[in-house]
Specification:
- The protein is an alpha+beta fold and 351 residues long.
- It folds into three domains: 63 residues, no CATH class; 163 residues, no CATH class; 96 residues, Roll (Pdz3 Domain).
- Helix content is 46%, strand content 23%.
- It contains nine helices and 14 strands.
- The strands form six sheets. A four-stranded antiparallel sheet has the order 8-7-9-10. Strands 1-2 form a two-stranded antiparallel sheet.
- The longest helix is centred in the first third of the chain and has 30 residues.
Amino acid sequence: MLTLIVSLHELGHLLAAKLFGVYVKEYAIGMGPKLFSKKGKETVYSIRAIPLGGFVALAGEDSNEEEFTEDNEKIPHERTLKGIARWKQIIVMLAGIFMNFVLAIVIYSMIILNNGSYVVSSKPVIDAVNENSPAMKAGLQAGDLVTSIGFSDMSISPNDYVEVVTFTSAYDGNGPWSITVERDGQKYDYEVMPEYKEADGRYYIGISFGNAAYDVVKVNIFNCWYYGVKQVFFVVKLTIASLISVFRSANMSAVSGPIGIYSTVSEVSELGWVYYAQLIAIVSISVGIMNALPLPIFDGGRVLIVLIEAIIHRDLDEKTQGVIMTASMVLLLMLMVLVTYNDILKLAGGK
């Protein structure tokens, strides 16, 4: 699964680089020693022994154009990543993230087409309020339309119930929720203190949106792509909200690495292809979002460096870039150690 996701990510870089004439030395599926390779016009396409990820080697990436030769001649500067216009560099760097989202869109579109219908969320109208819940104690009622919701220093005016769910998933347990509802043409403001539900591992106030929040539409080969994109946007919102929640609470127990992913894949694959495909889409989106983070070791960070260079009208010197890359690599390794430790604890039943 990771090989598929990462290889398609790298394919995005490859295609964009080829589009702008950047010399590509190799495109590899997998890591480690080569099992099979074939040279095209100038690029070597290979399959490697370890089925985990892949890579694309571009001339001029990380200032290594000196290592790239063709017919014993140095690759011209204009055919290196650094030798093309900065806006083209940004497209090459973002193309991998784009491919991650394309994969997710295709998967969700096919799943939705297979289902034959799609559930569309409607206005965030409260369908029911649980007995003795924080919402009931505060005064919220069934039929209330949520027009605003906020906590800490954040608030939104939700268009549908999905935005309510997405936003509130970022709640870190500090302070009450400020909720404004519309009832019989009047606006009412409430403060609701969520309660932590140990069994579910989340906070709740005791409201549900129920059937009033859903509309079911028929899906065909033409409109499934639209709903596939909608589903990807929903997962992106949920993933970002989860990341915000992790950073705000400094609770890394919800983050998994390769060990945790392997454990999850093992369980999900037994449920059938639909669930497995959904997991591929979710992980692909997560990989795309992770690569968009402004750390220089990721595509988002490299884009940030290019933007800084555009502002100062010169390239950053190699020493500065080396320090930045080393610092980001250390941060990434620390994160990997932490999530691997969490994964081992979960497998051992420690958490």
